[in-house]
Design goal:
The protein is mainly α. The protein is built from 17 helices and two strands. 38% of the residues are buried.
Length: 353
């Protein structure tokens, strides 16, 4: 495809053909019936010789990263910088792995195999990063720009904290701020179709800061509020209100129409049942909304730039589903239980009106 650089029509047409082979709908349901790893590998990685769940997962992520970087290399004008920034998402995840290893004292020689191989443009100095002994030593090795800027602020305020939470949140914040900046540079229908996807993922970040930061880690509102990303559907004021809410469901209700289409069904009414909800339930519903918006953009844009962005996002959800599926097969879960963990959830929720 490199010979057709900047041919948007050709690229979009290729991606529509590729989309028809994705593990969605009926094909995803059929994969839930697979009971062995060798069969699963044959289905999702034809020609692959691996049958170990961990290796299958790594290969799926490696292929996705390679595909996104390849797509980003196809365009030199319309939205090219935005596509390249989508590939930076893998760089951010590599930084998190290295950071987590340093802060938790994991054996550093075990970390490189878990990193996603990336083209030189997005590669990190992994050798130096694994040699860092503190966040201060880690900081100058973070790529310049929005990632380093936000990471610097996190180091200034949380230097003595050994939990990865604040530093990972800072990397995500920098990533989403730049993604919004690149989206605002688009015009016309491209911006109209792409922006809801970017807002959705950014507001899912806000929702998870509330869910995990406030209700799991019990962090103070003042420690979480600075990680708000401006310009999203969840304003700073709404974010502050969510952080101050007494329970998960109340906080999540403020994200309806922004990060969530619905709230999880509560069996047996409210009270203790509502208190028993976990962040993963809300996160799954947020990703279901994300997939719905991506599908809409892909169909409506057809051969436009938004279709390219939507395809990348749909592929991310596909790979996440396949990884979840592989874990279900390894654990020998029934097909129905595995399907219930995939995105979109199979009618596991009701509309909130």
């Amino acid at each position: 495809m490199r010979g057709f650089t900047d041919n948007l029509d050709f690229l979009a047409a290729r991606l529509h053909g590729r989309c028809s082979r994705m593990a969605v709908g009926g094909r995803l349901d059929a994969l839930c019936q697979v009971r062995t790893m060798p069969r699963f590998a044959a289905e999702v990685l034809p020609g692959s010789e691996t049958a170990a769940a961990t290796e299958i997962q790594r290969q799926l992520v490696r292929d996705l990263a390679r595909e996104v970087a390849s797509i980003a290399a196809q365009l030199a004008s319309t939205g090219a910088e935005l596509l390249r920034w989508l590939a930076v998402r893998f760089q951010v995840e590599n930084l998190k792995i290295l950071l987590r290893g340093m802060l938790t004292g994991e054996r550093l020689e075990l970390l490189p195999p878990h990193l996603v191989p990336l083209p030189r443009e997005f590669a990190l100095d992994a050798a130096s990063l694994t040699g860092a002994r503190s966040v201060d030593e880690f900081l100058p090795l973070v790529p310049r720009g929005p990632l380093r800027r936000r990471f610097t602020q996190a180091v200034q305020h949380h230097r003595e904290d050994k939990r990865p939470f604040f530093f990972e949140a800072a990397l995500d914040q920098g990533y989403f701020e730049e993604l919004l900046t690149q989206t605002e540079a688009l015009a016309g229908q491209d911006k109209e179709m792409v922006k809801p996807l970017v807002l959705q993922e950014s507001d899912t970040f806000h929702l998870m800061l509330v869910m995990r930061g406030r209700f799991i880690h019990r962090l103070e509102v003042s420690a979480l509020l600075p990680f708000h990303v401006p310009g999203t559907g969840i304003s700073r004021g709404r974010f502050a209100a969510m952080l101050a809410d007494a329970d998960l469901r109340t906080a999540a209700s403020r994200a309806l129409g922004r990060a969530l289409d619905t709230l999880p069904v509560v069996s047996g009414g409210s009270g203790k049942a509502a208190d028993a909800m976990v962040p993963a339930e809300f996160e799954a519903l947020a990703w279901s909304r994300f997939l719905r918006l991506a599908n809409r953009a892909f169909r409506r844009s057809h051969t436009g730039f938004a279709a390219v962005v939507a395809f990348v996002e749909m592929r991310r959800v596909e790979v996440a589903n396949l990884i979840t599926l592989s874990e279900g097969i390894r654990a020998r879960f029934p097909a129905e239980r595995v399907r219930a963990q995939l995105v979109p959830r199979p009618l596991a929720e009701v509309p909130h009106v």
